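To whoever is on call:

I kicked off a structure prediction for a single chain this morning and the downstream step that reads the tokens threw a length-mismatch warning. I double-checked the sequence; it's 137 residues and nothing unusual in it as far as I can see. Pasting both halves so you can look.
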Amino acid sequence: MGTKSQERIYGGSVRASAELAAKARKDADRLAREAWNKRMLAFQGPAQPSPALGDALNAGYLYLEVKCLGCETHQTVALDVVRRPKTTPIHELERYMHCKDCSDVRGYRYKRSHLVALRRNRISALNPPSVWWPGER
């Protein structure tokens, strides 16, 4: 006398639901990141509200582009090595950013930076820095 286990009866539907939920979370994270990037590039902010650090990583965006307001350079920061909880909003990272070149010239940590956008890859010759729309201001 055998009975089917609950795993056998409900396991497939539970796994399918979990996969759909994971896909929906990834899509939601991607859309939130796209909205934030468009707001930052089109209007130069405001940076609040911003997606959480974990949401950006979940959507596949591993870098944050930052612009120094002193020397106008663009740098990327790897988000997977940031030592903050994954629930930290991206805009809270702005206060910890400083420009190394400007800091060396001034002799103290120069923290005049502006968040530009989330990126999938680092700034390079093939992936140039983002520009403000319509054109650099």
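Update from on-call: the warning came from a stale cache, not from the record. Cleared it. Sanity check on the structure: Helices lie at 6-43, 53-58, 100-106.
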